[in-house]
Amino acid sequence: MKIGVLSRDASLYSTRRLLEAGNKRGHMMKIIDHMRCYIEITADSPRLIYQGKPLSDIDAVIPRIGASYTFYGTAVVRQFEMMGVLSANGSDAIARSRDKLRCLQLLSKEGVGLPVTGFAHSTKDTEGVIELVGGAPLVIKLLEGTQGIGVVLAETYQAAKSVIEAFRGLDANILVQEYIKEAKGQDLRCFVVNNQVVASMKRQGAPGEFRSNIHRGGTVRRIKLSSQERDTAVRAAMAMGLKIAGVDLLRSSNGPVVIEVNSSPGLEGIERATGIDVASKIIQYLEQQWLTKRKTEEKGE
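Above: the chain's sequence. Below: its structure in token form.
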């Protein structure tokens, strides 16, 4: 197969590992900077142009699209789909997962465990939203935040009110969530490939830090999930329509709750913590999809 990795930086660990895994399994791998692709929209033959030449020889793509490039990145993935190219994650699924509010609404609809979450537009409703999630301490999240940026723990009612009003004063959209104190600054990253959890790790926040992101000094170690945790992670990925996903869970007194579903989960932390070759599992999934597609085409379906 000829597989394109949609990535802006060839030096990133995840990008390099996908290239290595694909090459090792005998595929022709190509890095494609999706922000340098431009799109030709026609009735008969949609095309993508990259570095002045049509991208006409790609069988499948693995999107590695940063959150700040979601709109253009998903447009490029959608164009590949229109050209009949397989995508590890579909454009609609990526868009769903990137919209934090929509993501939570879809998970709620599917009955997936979640922290109690409030969302409001007017600062006149601040007191009501705080009460909705059980009062302080509570967590305030910017809808556009990533890697723990724009996530605030408000330990008192007055602090929560001040932060919410400050964010809304800047016209920033926020979520207000109950604080799961029993999680103790820990969360679980579940790496899902084709509706199966293939690797999992526990992330522990740095001392004095309630966020467990590795980028913020958190530490990681391999962990065995319960059957309920595995089921929750798979259901969350399926609710988004994602075949490749990093699902983040908290262990609450009411069972596992989902705090995020990531459509471009990093490989470095999970592979080093678990020793599992996750990159190869992604390539193997694409191989399965390619074989299924070929068999369908041969049958003329």
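The CA atoms of residues 107 and 239 lie 6 Å apart.
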